[in-house]
Amino acid sequence: MAVWAAWGAGLVLVLVLVSFYVSWRATRLDRLHTRVETAWAALDAALSRRAAAVQEFSSGPWVEPASAVLLADAAAAARRAGSADGAGAARELAESDLSRTLRAVLEEPGLAECPGGREPLREVEAAAKRVLLARRFHNDAVAHTRQARARRLVRVLRLAGGAPLPGFFEMDDEPPRVPGSFGAL
């Protein structure tokens, strides 16, 4: 009888430990999904701020008309893709196009000496660098979440529930290197 009682106590202890581990794993997965959502919100805000800063910069007299049209069109396309697509492939392409257009226009040597355009130029530079960092944080959170969801226990017990598998946001996010700027990352 004492053997069965010890066996029963051991079994209960094992079940309690397994329950705690599964509960901890599910809570961790939930926190990772929350982290992805928070990182996406920060990235989305950074992308929107960059598009707004580019549109404001392109409307100034310090940008030649052809470059102003290119910048304004690329920023408007990025904003449209952001409001329509959220985090899809069309937005990735539009944001990458805005990054390439920014580099093409802002890396011109004469732009750094433009009077009155220095402050809006700094805002665009800072916004572009924030996009770079926000995308890195987002993709890092996605990688950690995907790694946690790939574990056998998570898949077998379906601890992720109905949450969709988060996706990476892939875009060209290299900020422009403006001559005479306040430095690189």
From TrEMBL:
It comes from the Bacteria. Keywords: Membrane, Transmembrane, Transmembrane helix. Gene3D superfamilies: LemA-like domain. The chain crosses the membrane at residues 6-24. The keyword Transmembrane applies. SUPFAM superfamilies: LemA-like. This is LemA family protein.
